[in-house]
Structures are given as C-alpha cells and as structure tokens.
Amino acid sequence: MFGAVIVLTLQGCGATSLARDETLGWSADKLYAEAKDDIASGNWAAALKLLEKLESRYPFGRHAQQAQIDTAFVHWKEGENALALAAIDRFTKLYPNHERIDYVLYLKGLVNFNNRSNLLARFTGEDLSERDPKAAREAFDSFKELITRFPNSPYAADASDRLTFLVNMLASSDVHVARFYYRRGATLAAVNRAQAVVKQYQEAPAIEEALAIMMNGYEQLGLSELSADARRVLQKNFPASVYLKSAYDPTVKKPVAVKPPAAPSAFSRLKFW
Question: What domains can you pick out in the chain, each with its CATH number?
C-alpha cells in the first residue's frame, strides 16, 4: 500500500512537471519564432532553452541547422566564448558547405576578436599588443578565410576592417617580443622575430621599430651589409623615423596606435626600392 502511494506520488509529480512545460506540442516553426523573439529582445537564457528544445525535438527539420548557429550566437552574447566556439566548430564539421558558412566564419572571428580579456585590457588601458595573441591570431585566421572564400559576403567589409586592426595588433605583439629579446642581449632572436614582422605584416606601423631592431641588431652581429639594407628600407618608408637619428633604445617603446579602424587602413605595402 505504501509503495503504491509512492508510485502515485511520483507519477503525480511527473505529470505536474510535464504540465509546466508550455512548449509541449509546439511546432518547429513556433519554437523557432519564439526563440528569435527572445534573441531580438536580448533574453538569452530563454532563447537558449527554446533552441535546445528545437534541436532535440526536430533534429532533422529545416530550422535545426539554423538553431545551431543561433545557439553559438547566444552563447557568445552571454559571454560563454568557449561554448560558442565549441558550437561553431561542431557546426562547421557537420555542415562545411552550408549556405551560411560565411556568417559562421564571421561569428567565429567575432568571438575571438571580442574576447573578455581584450575588452578588459581596453577598459584598463593595457597595451593589447603585450597580451597573449592566441585569440587574436584565431580571429585573424577566421576573418582571412571569410574574405578569401567569400569576398562578396555581406560580412566581408567589416571583417576586412577588423583584419586591419588585427594585423597592426599582431605586428605590435611580435615587435614587443623582439624588443624583449633585444633588451636581454638575445640579439639574433630579436632580429629573427623583427624580420618575421617585416615579412608578414608589411602594412603595419609597427614595422618601423622592427626595421630599427634589424638595423641595429645586424650591426651588433657584425653583418654590416644587412644592417645597411635594413636602414635603406627604413629610410625609404619612414624618412622621418627617430630611429634614423639616434641609436635604437629597447627601453623606450615608440607608441603605436592599436585601435579598431573606422575604415580600412590607408597603410601601403612596404617599399624596398
């Protein structure tokens, strides 16, 4: 008798729990429409629940794939970057040729571009170029792939602007490392890192200091011809550079703006002749 009461009680609780889910019986269209309304109003938690229900109840419906994309977006808006990236990676593996893969690449770039550590650095005034550039490099790769594969995508123009910023930031980050090596007497390592900056980021203003490191580093290494070549390129591209007038001092960093541009960068490619 007592056991029967327990069973009835559990069944009653189950029925009550099911009754509380007002979405039971909702069509895929209604679930998706309600989720989109919650996304539009910024109700991320409610949107995520509806998207999860949509995927579980209608995994092969026409809204299921879009729900996965929206799930990644909602995770990002909630500040859950790891979950957002996991959702994006899962989607791209399952649907590499999806019609909205350009947006997915763009979203992946945004997640890494706007990670919380970078936002905190901007708020506190910390130099972004001195932080771990891992997220910036991943954002760079995503935006570059988007522009390369989908040059006519509606997201390509904004990705290009962000790519310009990332080029400047990554170049400044590598110059920061080169400066660190130079300051500690690791001249060859400093020159090699500076040379990589010149090769990879020719539009970035940070190459001015990279060339100065090469010019002075080669001189210290007894490679006068290479030092003269670096000076010539520095003078050709930055005729008013302070590094041409005085010896390079690694303890004094020349300020380089690392801010998202309002429009595509006007920097031209490096001139060698």
Answer: 27-99 (1.25.40.10), 117-273 (1.25.40.10)
